[in-house]
From TrEMBL:
The keyword Hydrolase applies. Residues 43-272 form the NodB homology domain. This is Putative xylanase/chitin deacetylase. The keyword Hydrolase applies. GO terms for molecular function: hydrolase activity, acting on carbon-nitrogen (but not peptide) bonds; hydrolase activity, acting on glycosyl bonds. Keywords: Carbohydrate metabolism, Glycosidase, Hydrolase, Polysaccharide degradation, Xylan degradation. PROSITE patterns: NODB. It holds the Pfam family Polysacc_deac_1. GO terms for biological process: xylan catabolic process.
Length: 284
């Protein structure tokens, strides 16, 4: 994961299930639900912060999570299992966020693998290793799987079901519609519909997007699907030279995030977690 060919992974649970509807924000139940008012539909936007891990851009990771905390906004974080557990600052911040009902934790692979390269059994084992480790550290097994590289196939969905995962988030290229309803595979599918940044097409640098571009993608996602999922990575919020990253904030990109969050509020959209989308987002 420290190798350049995996940079997009580094540079690229959870909500209560239908039978556990009594959870409330702040209760931090064992399945880490971030339940809001049931039955009250919204034009919802969920933010997922991928690549949470020990030591890597530590200050940037914490600053992003803290930005949502300061605004009293929920956030779903994708944790890489094999790279999580030794960094006291990161682990403590995630634990505190979960206990306070601020953070929803998702399984983001064991070594940030491209899951489509593996058999169903291998995919299931990788998910299980991360869920077991997170259970040992945080006290629950995530119910959300955020696919590394956004890469999924039918074997991924079967593996998720093997691990009692309820929600999968990839992108609309790998995971086609319909969305917003539980499918025949027993899962809710909420793919990425917008990004705050991404690796450049030539793979030479990490780009941060302006808030207007991301907001346009959010509007399109809500108009077409009834929800939006915005993917963030620590990389676009850190100072960088090509693919060399420094654990110092890119203040310009943080300003773009500030303007994006304000635009979402002005538009009348509501920010929620990935898991809450099953109960809150509007069907179209």
């Amino acid at each position: 994961m420290r190798k350049e060919e995996n940079m997009k992974g580094i540079a690229f649970a959870v909500a209560g299930c239908a039978m556990l509807l009594l959870a409330t924000v702040g209760a931090a139940p064992s399945f880490n639900a971030q339940q809001q008012t049931l039955g009250e539909k919204c034009r919802c936007v969920a933010f997922r912060l991928d690549d949470i891990q020990d030591y890597y851009l530590q200050g940037t990771q914490i600053r992003l999570m803290d930005e949502f905390e300061r605004r009293n906004l929920p956030l779903t974080v994708g944790v890489i299992g094999n790279y999580f557990g030794q960094d006291e600052k990161i682990v403590s911040f995630v634990k505190e966020g979960v206990a306070a009902g601020r953070l929803e934790v998702a399984n983001h692979g064991w070594n940030h693998e491209r899951f489509t390269l593996y058999s169903q059994t291998e995919q299931s084992d990788l998910m299980a290793k991360t869920n077991e480790k997170l259970n040992n550290i945080l006290g629950f097994r995530p119910l959300i799987f955020i696919a590394p590289y956004n890469a999924v196939n039918d074997k991924t969905f079967a593996a998720a079901k093997d691990n009692a995962i309820l929600y999968v988030s990839a992108n609309m290229t790998f995971d086609k519609p319909p969305y917003n309803n539980k499918r025949d595979d027993g899962l809710w599918h909420y793919p990425e519909t917008a990004e705050t940044g991404d690796l450049s097409s030539d793979g030479a640098r990490w780009l941060g997007y302006d808030h207007e571009k991301t907001m346009s993608e959010i509007k399109r996602g809500i108009d077409e699907n009834g929800f939006a999922v915005v993917t963030m990575h620590p990389m676009e919020f850190a100072l960088r030279d090509g693919l060399s990253f420094h654990d110092k904030l890119d203040e310009k990109q943080m300003q773009e995030l500030d303007m994006l969050l304000k635009s979402i509020n002005e538009q009348g959209y509501e920010i929620t977690t990935l898991g809450d989308l099953a109960w809150r987002s509007e069907s179209v």
